[in-house]
Amino acid sequence: MVERLSLSCSSNCHAVRRGRKKGFVHMIEIIIVVVMAFFAFFQFSYITTPGADWQRTKLALLGNDVLAVMDKNDVNWFDKNEVDSQLKDMIKSTNIVYSIKLDNVIKQDIKIGCLCIDGETSKIDDMLKPEPMQINMENINFSVEQVSDIGSLLNPKYDVVILSDPSVINSINGNTANLMRYLGLDKGIIELFPLRQADVTGAQKEVFGLEWSSDIPDGSGRIIISPYARNPGSETYTVYKYFNSFPNTTGDGYFEIGHEFNDYLVENSKVISAGNNPQKILSVQRGTGAAAGILNWGMSDKKGRTAWLPIGIPTNEDEKSLLKSVVAWAGGRAEILKKTTMKNPVTVSRYSVYNSDMFQIVRIDLTLDYL
Question: Could you tell me the pTM of the whole model?
Answer without folding.
Answer: 0.84
